[in-house]
Design brief:
Distance between the termini: 112 Å
Order of helices and strands: HEEEEEEEEEEEE
Oligomer: single chain
Strand content: 25-35%
CATH superfamily of one domain: Galactose-binding domain-like
CATH class of one domain: Mainly Beta
Number of strands: 12
Radius of gyration: 39 Å
Shape: elongated
CATH topology of one domain: Jelly Rolls
Largest sheet: 7 strands, antiparallel
């Protein structure tokens, strides 16, 4: 290789080295200038808080069960009182009811009543009732009574009652046995708007080893019971569907 060729090769090698060095520096400078990528942690799940709320019902909202009841509503005193009952008056002439519109899925926790009672022989009694839509059945969830002067009763506890408007309706029932001048002023219900969900009950399984099997079902809330049957030909009279017999225990 002659001298001019060596000189040309040296020049080309130098240019190639400079190009590679400049490209590397450019890539490095862009990498340094690029913003850092920060990993943002996922937001925490929303905290479900239990909020206590109240529903108040004035005595002026109550209506008599019996149209012949003798009573008076005093807007000034906010008091529902009897005006005297004739001898032999039916028992329901002392009963009054007020329908309730409760928020679905809330938990009922307490019932307090307010009023005046100056009759030593009578009382002011209020019951919270839940009635089935599908049948004529009502259950008393709480009851509170007072019979001495101007009063505010301690809250009557309502254990583990979740409002379910799909299955039930709710109302307050007032029974007045106190004579004129005594009566109910108002009632106050305590509710928890977002109750902590109950711990789910672990599913249980039962095996039918003979013609009959016995097992217990929880009596609070809704319980899912599933019966699966394949071959019942071994029975003397194979049923088309399994038979259920429920007994209270």
């Amino acid at each position: 290789m002659n001298k001019p060729q060596l000189l040309l090769t040296s020049i080309l090698s130098t240019i190639f080295t400079l190009v590679i060095t400049a490209g590397s520096m450019l890539i490095f400078s862009r990498t340094m200038a690029a913003p850092l990528i920060q990993m943002t942690p996922p937001p925490p799940p929303p905290v479900v808080t239990s909020t206590v709320t109240y529903l108040s019902v004035t005595s002026l909202a109550f209506a008599p069960v019996n149209a012949d009841s003798r009573y008076q509503k005093d807007p000034r005193r906010q008091l529902l009182t009897l005006t005297g009952q004739p001898a032999g008056a039916p028992a329901d002439s002392r009963l009054f009811i007020a329908p309730l519109v409760l928020p679905d899925d809330s938990m009922l926790t307490g019932l307090t009543i307010f009023g005046e009672d100056f009759d030593n022989q009578g009382a002011v009694q209020v019951r919270l009732k839940r009635c089935d839509h599908s049948q004529a059945r009502c259950l008393s969830l709480a009851e509170t009574t007072y019979a001495a002067g101007q009063f505010e009763t301690p809250p009557a506890a309502i254990p583990n009652e979740i409002v379910n408007n799909y299955f039930y309706s709710y109302f307050l029932e007032l029974e007045l046995t106190a004579m004129p001048g005594s009566g109910l002023r108002s009632a106050r219900l305590e509710l928890v708007a977002n109750p902590t969900p109950p711990t789910p009950v672990e599913a249980q399984r039962w095996a039918l080893t003979g013609a009959v099997t016995n097992f217990l079902l929880p009596n609070q809330g809704l319980t899912l019971a599933r019966v699966c049957a394949d071959d019942l030909s071994y029975l003397e009279t194979p049923p088309t569907t399994p038979a259920w017999l429920l007994t209270a225990g």
